[in-house]
Each structure stands twice: as structure tokens, then as C-alpha cells.
Amino acid sequence: MDRVGIGIIGLGNISGAYLKAAALFPVLDIRAVADLDMARAEKVAAEHGIRALSVDDLLADPEVEIVLNLTIPAAHVEVGLKAIAAGKHVYSEKPLGIDFASAKELIAAAEAAGLRVGCAPDTFLGGSHQAARALVDQGAIGQPLGGSATMVTPGHERWHPAPAFYYDHGGGPMLDMGPYYITDLVNLLGPVARVTGVTRTPRTTRTILSEPLKGTEMPVKVPTHVTGIMEFTGGAVVQILMSFDVEGSRHPRIELWGSEGSMVVPDPNRFDGAPQVLPQRGEWAEAEVTLPHGDGNYRSLGLADMAHAIREDRPHRASGALALHVLEVMESILAAGAEGRAIDLTTTCDRPAPLADSPVATAPVTTEKETSA
Ligand SMILES: NC(=O)c1ccc[n+]([C@@H]2O[C@H](COP(=O)([O-])OP(=O)(O)OC[C@H]3O[C@@H](n4cnc5c(N)ncnc54)[C@H](O)[C@@H]3O)[C@@H](O)[C@H]2O)c1
Fold it and tell me: Which of 8, 118, 217, 320 could be stapled to 68 by a disulfide with Cβ–Cβ 3.0 to 4.6 Å?
């Protein structure tokens, strides 16, 4: 396999997970790293035996085919547009951007240049979520009627070293965690046609509880308790709650209800777990997960799929079209909450093909199991 050259821009909290998991995918060849903070880039480069470059030099580097954009959400589109202008494919952490209009420009620029945009999350490609998809496709719950998606946490200021961006424009629980849930639901049920929403912002300032900024007050500029209803084009109606204001919950993260039964879908922020199915007049039972990528942290799988897709000249799964649709769903739920009305979506997308249709070469996992927060 002709490996694909990757250059990473943005070396913060999540970059370690990518640098570690990339070793699982022979197609990925990380050739350079860059960050606004050059000292950080040099430190990471030294640890991994790769080159540290300035952002501009990385973008100009002929060895880099895909720019892996791990900057903060507010910089995703700007960095993505620079990558496309430099003739590189770009794969971004989620969300695709912090507003639908500018993210649309990124997709249009890539299309005009004949380049690819990929975007996290890729957890929907994990063995547990692919198993849930196969069950839906095989009719295990019959015709999907509805479901729920629930993510609650008291807030990332308890653990993230620099959590202010989660409460600034472009932050909030919907744009931060919504991508995992809505991407998984689109993979399971297809695209969304219409949404409504109701939002709350119970606190206008919050205090950082983690080091090194413990005690610092942060302004809250976005709704932190976001509820919505999503009407899927296939007919299913899913209620969603994304909150940074709730201590805990026993609601399943995702549950689906169909004409022939119900299903609890595993945590969409993880690759592992197993779906649970309740057939008509039967008992809840855990499904067996035999598909790959269900037993560890494979955060790079979507990037590896895109690298294979470039070499194999086929569509990649964690695509710009999927991420743009998910961003429009999220922004529309927030707008519906602000404006008190239902909003019709302007975008749609195809469900990505099951991963088993064109597998991604993977080395055996040697790392211990870990969370994929
Ligand atoms: N932290 C997590 O656990 C986590 C998990 C999943 C996804 N993500 C996503 O990963 C992305 C990054 O999150 P993080 O927690 O690593 O953030 P972070 O703040 O820890 O790191 C971001 C890094 O990007 C750099 N950067 C910012 N703007 C830049 C620019 N224009 N050019 C070059 N470098 C730039 C910063 O200097 C910093 O080193 C976000 O989109 C987030 O949603 C984070």
C-alpha cells in the first residue's frame, strides 16, 4: 500500500490520541506537525521523531497530502481553506466549523479544487456502531419510529486544561458533543429533514475547576442546555438533549424505537460497547460484536478510511457532506430554540457505506483500552 503523507496542524489535548492511534493504520504516514505555538510543535516532533514546521511551511510541504486539522473549532474553516488553497486534502476534528455558512464555503472550495474534506467523529465506524447499523439494516427493530439522544455532563471545566472555548461562540454542548450523536443517528437512520429546539443558559459565568487555570471565571456566551426534536427523512422522530448543566443521568445515550423492537446504541463517543436489542414480546439482550475496531480507541479510523479512499478512488465515509449536514442540523436546533420555530434543513447526505464493504487495513491493538473522550 502506497502510504499517504499526513501533516498535523494543532497539537493540543486531542493530538496525542491521534498520534498514538495513527500507528494502528499502515496507510497513515505522519510526516510533519505544526502549531501556532512553535515550542509545542518542536516538543511533539521530538517525541515522535517527525519534523516540526511553521503552519505555512507545513501547508507548502510536498510530502503532505492530507492536512489533519486538530485546531480549535473556531479555526477549523480558516485552516481548512488554507489547506485547500495549498492543494491539500483536509480532515478536520469536529465540528466542521462553528457556523454553517462558512463551512459551506469550505466544502465548495474543496469541490472546486477537486480535493477531499473529511471530518470527525469517526466513532460511528467503530465495531459497536457498525454492528448497530447492521442490526437496523437487517430489520432487528423493524421500521424506525423514533428514539432519543442524551448527553449530559456538569461541564468540561472539571477536566480540560483550557476550557474557555467550550463556553464561547462556537462552543456549547450541541456543537461539542452533538456531532457524535447526530453523526451516529444519520449513519443509522439517514438524513434529517426538519428540527425544532428549546435552549437554556442557566449560568452567565462559570469557574474553571481544573489546573492550571483553577479559579478563573469564564463568560458563558452560548446555551448550555439544548433540547431538540429531529424529524428524519425516513420518518423517525428523535428527541435530543445536550447539556453542560446536569450532574448525571441514567438515560441511555442513544435509544431507537421501531415497529418490531427497540435498541440501545452504545456510547457514540466511543468505539467499543455492544448494542442491546428488545425484540417484540422478547427480552433485552446484548448483541455480539464481531466487526473490527470495537475493542479500543481507534481515533484516526475516519482519516485512515479517507487515505485508503484516495488511493482506491472511492468515497470516504467521514465525509464533508455528512459533517456539513450534521452542522446544519445542530445550528438549526440552536436557531429554532432562539427563534421559537421549526426549521427545514437545506442539506442532505447519503448514509456512509458500511465499513465492511471496503475495510481499512489495521494493525493489531497493543495499547490498553482507554476512553475516547
Ligand atoms: N480534548 C478532547 O478530548 C477532544 C476530544 C475530541 C475532539 N476534540 C476536538 O479536537 C479539537 C481540538 O481540541 P483540543 O482539546 O485538542 O484543543 P486545545 O485547545 O487543547 O488544542 C488546540 C491546539 O491548536 C492550536 N491552534 C489553534 N488555532 C490554530 C491555528 N489557527 N493554527 C495552528 N494551530 C492552532 C493551539 O495552539 C493548540 O495547541 C477541537 O475541535 C475539539 O472539538 C477534542
Answer: 8
CA of 38 to the centre of ligand 1 (A): 15
| 271 shares a domain with 154 | yes
Q: Are residues 119 and 136 in the same domain?
A: no
Find out whether the beta carbon of 163 lies less than 6 Å from any atom of ligand 1: no
CA–CA distance, 296 with 372 (Å, rounded to integer): 9
Regarding the beta carbon of 305 and ligand 1, being less than 6 Å apart is answered no
| DSSP result, 321-370 | HHHHHHHHHHHHHHHHHHHTS-EE-S---PPPPPGGGS----PPP-SPP-
- Each residue's pLDDT tens digit, 82-126: 999 999 999 999 999 999 999 999 999 999 999 999 999 999 999
Residue with cell 459533517: 323
pLDDT digits (tens, 9 = 90+) for 208-256: 999 999 999 999 999 999 999 999 999 999 999 999 999 999 999 999 9
The tally of domains found in the chain comes to: 2
CA–centroid distance, residue 12 to ligand 1 (Å): 5
Taking CA atoms only, the protein residue closest to ligand 1 atom 38 is 12
Residue 338 lies in a domain: no
